[in-house]
Amino acid sequence: MPDLLLELRSEEIPARMQRKAAGDLKKLLTDALVEAGLTYEGAREYWTPRRLTLDIRGLNTRSADVREDRKGPRTDANEKAIEGFLRGAGLTSIDQAHVHSDPKKGDFYVAHIVKPGRPAEEIIAEVMPGIIRNFPWGNPMRWGAASAKPGSLRWVRPLQSIVCLFGPEHEETQVIPFAVDGIVASNMTYGHRFHAPQAITVRRFADYIEKLEKAKVVLDAERRKEIIAADAANIAFANGLELVEDEALLEEVSGLVEWPQVLMGSFEEDYLAIPSEIIRLTIKTNQKCFVTRRPGEETLSNKFILVANIEAKDGGKEIVHGNGKVVRARLSDAKHFWTRDQGNLPDLETLEASAKKFDLDLKKPLDQRMAKLDALNVTFHAKLGTQGERVQRIRALAAELAKATGADPVLVDRAVVLAKADLRTEAVGEFPELQGLMGRKYALLQGEDASVAAAIEDHWKPQGPSDRLPADAVGLTVALADKLDTLVGFWAIDEKPTGSKDPYALRRAALGVVRVLLERKVRLRLSTVVKDNDLLSFFHDRLKVYLRDLGARHDLIDAVLASGSHLPLEGGGRSEAAGGGDGQGRTKDHPTPSLRADPPPQGEGIANDDLLMVARRVEALTAFITSEEGLNLLAGTKRATQLLAAEEKKGTAVAASVDPALLKLDAEKALYAAVTQASTEARAAIAGEDFRSAMEALSNLRGPVDQFFADVLVNDEDPAIRANRLALLGLIRSATGTVADFSKISG
């Protein structure tokens, strides 16, 4: 079976695009080959800064013949119908058709059409120009004289050559001839831009990769990463240091070089007074270099590791010197930012009103920055007001949430008013990804409580399913308030996630709320903050994802959420109503979220808004429903609810309540007594949040339910008795519904 080697060589492709582009090329070509009737044994993609390569093994030499039977008109059809059939089938005479007989329809013509297969070379040459011309680059460019012509080739960077070779492993290969805008496919490629710029003739993949290696090109990106990581770790170890690993930077750097050469540079130790996070980001962002540290230490050393693309004759001294100059210049800027952020702003007299509004101390640098943020009316969102207004909303909400989390309200308030202050620092202006972290550092420098400083950094957390939660109750409270305000606000202005689009990361915010509530066991009635049923459903969706990831069955989660029961709150779950009148952060489109004094009464308001209790009910239901008693009760309960639902759908009369006087048979009397007792016990257990005991109480229905269906005809001829028995089934549905909607459970 022959193999196919394809290389598209261009000017440097941005590192962030290379991996996806190589994958796109493999999918586009293999899909096109399969669509044309070819099969292959395997395909692998490769990429470097200057080339995308495909190695396709075991490709058919030609596509299979295609046979098709095309049914025509009856043999006694008119001449025009027969002529149309001949044209459509590609026949020149009716003698080329076959006559088939059908007992009902009579005799009719059938054309047996055979489309012969095509050589693989022909198919490849046909599909490749279209793949290249329509390649899904995000922002392709045109170049050269041809770029002025309509329909000229567009590529991410100027395309320079194409290799396209086809043939068996141990025989001569052939160039598959095709051209795109004057670039003709050949067996010629080129090695390293500086070390080996001469043309190289290749025959097949093994020959190709060997010759590239000799020409100072490591084709496999994963191998380049391994070389860089190993050499960087070794050079750090040789200098008594350890490499600070950075997978994202390693991926990027491997896409910047074809022949990686690892070197070590340094900068003055005076710059180590700057926080390590700033040093690392400065060196990474500006020079794509790795940082190092002493083994076991958190702070960095003054040595950094760079990756060059050439073997310098001087051993890399000039490269190290040049990179060191740039690193020192950037660190000098960073040191300037760090120092200025700890000093006074020049216009303190203009910030007094904002300082009073937020209880700020203008003698402290971070307080000054918060006052400045408010005084400048920095917009959070056009429809949701300024950052200052947002902080006031979060402040009011956090004060109430502190009652549920048990956090110190004074520390919570201080953390909230300083949480966004570092937006006005020069360090965060230069490196936005340091927001929160720099706030914590500046807070500690000005003597803030450690919990307040930690909360300033942690109020952004968790950023995803694997990110850590805030460290303590103060941070948890501020994080909850921040995320809830965001969600309520964007729902209020109808800026919700749609499909794969979520520009404001609202799914992540909701998952963060779910994780905080469940993993820190916080009792919170979301309906006291969330007034929109659609938003509560959004929380339920995130909860489902979270619980399914932990192994919970989707049908059991749905059963609990569909039950519609309201659980009583105790302790921190009940909160006094928040303040928040005019001047407390309200905007026209986004009223301040507040906590209602009491949860909604039974049967009213939004159901299942205490996510911690939902999770506990799912856990208890999972344990119960997998037991023999649970499975048997499920079968009987589903029979009762399905029968009742069917009769309700038909409009059959159902009594408003069970009349004991109409219970004639022992089985229905026993079931009524059992349901009454089980309901009482289950509700008492639920009131005490003892869901396992609630399940056990319901399990006592198993015998009476089975006996009822064995002895009792529900649809009695007497309408009153029938309505009463249906009401009895309704009691079963209500009793089990205190825990879950059993009709949602599969099995």
From TrEMBL:
One of its GO terms (molecular function) is glycine-tRNA ligase activity. Residues 570-584 have a biased composition (Gly residues). GO terms for cellular component: cytosol. It holds the Pfam family tRNA_synt_2f. SUPFAM superfamilies: HD-domain/PDEase-like. GO terms for biological process: arginyl-tRNA aminoacylation; glycyl-tRNA aminoacylation. Keywords: Aminoacyl-tRNA synthetase, ATP-binding, Cytoplasm, Ligase, Nucleotide-binding, Protein biosynthesis. Its EC number is 6.1.1.14. It is found in: Cytoplasm. InterPro entries: DALR_anticod-bd (IPR008909), Gly-tRNA-synth_bsu (IPR015944), Gly-tRNA-synth_heterodimer (IPR006194). It is an enzyme of class 6 (ligase). It comes from the Bacteria. It catalyses: tRNA(Gly) + glycine + ATP = glycyl-tRNA(Gly) + AMP + diphosphate. Residues 638-734 form the DALR anticodon binding domain. Residues 570-603 are annotated as: Disordered. Tetramer of two alpha and two beta subunits. Belongs to the class-II aminoacyl-tRNA synthetase family. This is Glycine--tRNA ligase beta subunit. It comes from Pararhizobium polonicum.
